[in-house]
Amino acid sequence: MESQPPQVAVLMTCRDRRASTLAALDALAAQTGLPAGTRVRVHLVDAGSRDGTAEAVRRAHPGVQVAEAGPDVYWSHGMRLASRNSRAAGLPEPTHQLWLGVGVRLRAGALAELLATARRFDDAAIVVGAVARAGVTVRSGRSGPPALALVEPTGAPERCATYDGDVVLVPWAVRERVGDIDKVFRHGMGDHDHGLRARRAGVAAYVAPRTVGEWAGGGSGRPASSEPGIGVREALRRVASEAERPVWPWAVYCVRHAGVRAPGLIVAPYVLAALRAGRTRGRGHRGASS
């Protein structure tokens, strides 16, 4: 009996990334080598873009389901909404979900390779795509805590403990077992938590044999807590923001995955930010008075 052709629900979320989002969708639409009958349906959550992203996507890619949300929706929350929308879209039911970052330009055969790798494991494992910039891997699977080092593609599937959420193929049976990104995470950490929860549930994750695309994304665009010259209060405000380590999600993440090291890890980012700000502010004052 032949298996059902892949029905891939692609989950994406963006804010004020019109050019990047369109380029990512162009690369997705140009995929080659897919099994006969493959259907790809994109579910994009536009989180309060002011640059016309939603309208531009509807014009250039009318088959994409665009849902508009408010600017208080960050990446993890947006991906949960996209997953909900994919499940509510009706038949045919997806066979896979593909998490796709708007900063990723997939190479032409990337989706076919991800699907083929999943088939090697009877669609019972998560497959992660490594993404490079100028030949250097910048997004991929990750080794186990505490290091979470990038796992490089080697020409064969490589086991990983968790993953960055930029290119992640989740077979539907696995999604039903593990669920979506946890709602406690609004922005960061949700992808790493998902991978570690999958491992705990007995679901393996593998990095695909070859790099699947190029990274064209940038940073968050927000000033970081490590910026020299800011005061301790500002450093703490930034490190506790959604862009870095919001207190409650970070505490949940540490308690779930750090074991006896959790108490120290919970306070570490805030202590380090305060100490760093105090040192750099002190050096600035000494320099000004010399």
Automatic annotation (TrEMBL):
GO MF terms, alphabetically ordered: glycosyltransferase activity
InterPro entries: Nucleotide-diphossugar_trans
Keyword Transferase: yes
Coiled-coil annotated residue ranges, if any: none
Pathway involvement of the protein, from the record: Cell wall biogenesis; cell wall polysaccharide biosynthesis
Record keywords, A-Z: Glycosyltransferase, Transferase
PANTHER family attached to this UniProt entry: GALACTOFURANOSYLTRANSFERASE GLFT2, RHAMNOSYLTRANSFERASE WBBL
Protein family (similarity comment): Belongs to the glycosyltransferase 2 family.
Protein known as: Glycosyltransferase family 2 protein
